[in-house]
Amino acid sequence: MSTKTIAFLGATGGCGLSALRRAVAAGHTCIALCRTPSKLAAQFPDRPANLILREGNAHDVAAVAACLSHPADPARLVDAVNFSIGGTVNMTKLTMDDPDVCKKGIAALLDAIAAVRAEERGGTTWRPLVAVVSTTGISQHGRDVPLLFVPFYHYALHVPHEDKKVAEQRLFDSGERFVIVRPSLLVDGEKPDRAIRVHVEGPQGIERKEVGYFISRDDVGRWMFENLLQKAGGGCEYEGKAVGLTW
Questions:
Q1: Which of 124, 148, 167, 207 is deepest in the core (most CB within 10 A)?
Q2: CA-to-CA distance for 44 and 9, rounded, in angstroms?
Q3: Which residues contact 117 (CB under 8 A, 6 or more apart)?
Q4: Rounded-to-integer distance, Cα 229 and Cα 1, Å
Q5: What is the per-residue pLDDT for 122?
Q6: What is the pLDDT of residues 66-83, one digit of tens each?
Q7: Which residues are in coiled coils (predicted)?
Q8: Would you place residue 121 in the very low, low, confident or very high pLDDT band (cuts 50, 70, 90)?
Q9: Is the Cβ–Cβ distance between 86 and 10 less than 8 Å?
Q10: How much is the average pLDDT of 89-115?
Q11: Alpha-carbon distance 44 to 156, whole Å?
C-alpha cells in the first residue's frame, strides 16, 4: 500500500494520538496541528522525520489550510484528514469549556478545504477523506446505545452532543468525502484481542445494528487508521456513512 499524506487535527491524546502513532509507524507523512506542539512532540522522543508539527488553532481556517499539503511539495495535497478535536466536559454544570468546539472545527476544516481547492494547487477535483470522531447517542435513525445509558447521555452529555449533531450535519451537507466515527463510551487501554463491532448508518437509515457499552480510545484510533486512513485513496466501504464502534 502506497504511503499517504495525512493531516491530524486534535492528536495530542485519545483516539487521535492512537491513529497518529500508527500512521507515523507505517511511514505515512503526518502533519499535526496543535496549540502546543511540544506537548505532542513529547509523545515521539525519537522525532520521526515523517511527523511534521504545526502550531495553531483548529478553528483558524488559515492554520488548518496550511496543514493540507505536503511540506516538501505544496502541490501535493493530503489524502486524508483525521479530525478528533473536542472539549472538556464539566459534569458539575453539565456543559463544556467550549460548547461549540466541534461545529467550529468542522466549519474551519470545510472552509480550509474549499480555500485550498480554489487555489487549484491539486486541481479542482481534490477531495480528501475526512475521518471524524463523533459519538454514539445522537443517531436520527434509532437508539444506538444501551437502554441503561439513555438518561446519562440525554442529560449529562446534552451540550457536547448538540455540538456534535451540528458538526455531523455540516459534513452530510458538504458534498465532501467523509466517514463519521461514533464510539461507545470511551475508556483507556487497548484490547487488541477483543473484537470491535461496527454499527453502520447510511443516509437512509441503519444498515447494520450493533449496540454496546464501551470501547477504548486506543482501539478507536487503531480502527480508524486501519479502515479509513490507510484506504483514503479509495476502496473505503464506509464513505458517506456514520459508523458506531463498540466492543
A1: 167
A2: 17
A3: 124, 126
A4: 12
A5: 56
A6: 999 998 998 899 999 999
A7: none
A8: low
A9: yes
A10: 88
A11: 35
- CB burial string 91-114: b at 16+ within 10 A, e below: eeeeebebebbbbbbbbbbbebbe
Instruction: Report in angstroms the alpha-carbon separations of 76 from 24, 54, 128, 175, 220.
Output: 18, 17, 12, 22, 28
Residue 97: what pLDDT? 77
The grid coordinates of residue 95 equal 456543559
